[in-house]
Amino acid sequence: MSLQQQLEVGFKAHESWALRRQLRIPNNRRLWVCACMDERLPVDEALGIRGDRGDAHVFRNAGGLITDDAIRSAMLTCNFFGTQEIVIINHTECGMMSANAETLVNALKQKGIDVDNVQLDPALPELRLGKGAFSKWIKMFDDVDAICAAQVEYVRNHPLIPKDVAVSGWIWEVETGHLRKPHSRVSEKVNTSTAMGAK
Ligand SMILES: [Zn+2]
Predict the structure, then answer these.
(1) What is the Cβ-side half-sphere exposure of residue 195, based on CA atoms within 13 angstroms?
(2) Cα 74 from Cα 88, distance rounded (Å)
(3) Coil, strand, or helix at residue 60?
(4) How far, in Å, CA of 199 to CA of 197, rounded?
(5) CA atoms within 13 A of residue 10's CA, in its CB half-sphere
(6) Of 146, 167, 137, 153, residue with least CA distance to 94
(7) For 101-142, what is each residue's pLDDT tens digit?
(8) Is it true that domain 27-98+140-189 has CATH number 1.10.1740.10?
(9) Which end of the chain is more exposed for a tag (fewer CB within 10 A), N or C?
(10) How close is the Cα of 137 to the center of ligand 1, in Å?
(11) Domain definitions of the chain by residue range
């Protein structure tokens, strides 16, 4: 191949990368990921993908929680950008389990913040939380397995997500550096003779 031909190939590849949305090219794995923003959750390593090199649309927020903006993003990528699979990753020792919502609300109130009158979206000034709703909006949770399983069910049944999109949920164990399914801790099967089935 001449250098000119080589450069032409490189240019074409770069052009189709840069114009992916215009050309209706989905991400490489046709994948949308919702994951916690926590610095101990390495999304690419956990999934064996290169989300930062075109493999997926990766959405991260506090907790890896299905919020209104998560639904907005998932709706767009599944209905218009060719995504066919959703993976939700929550993780152990998540900061969202480190306090209860009322404690945080009280702390904000002590800073003089009026939590009952906070604007949430610059384009929707009418979108305000009703009195007392702020603590639910923070979305602190008690059990990472339960929240993960519940989120999968919610997304699977959401009217804005096409029924043929595959949805799964996983827990990243920060203490082991491995993924597991909700409610399936391997450690519980190895620590006692009862767990190992000794008679
Ligand atoms: Zn977290």
Answers:
(1) 9
(2) 11
(3) strand
(4) 6
(5) 7
(6) 146
(7) 999 999 999 999 988 888 888 999 888 888 889 999 999 999
(8) no
(9) C
(10) 16
(11) 27-98+140-189, 100-135
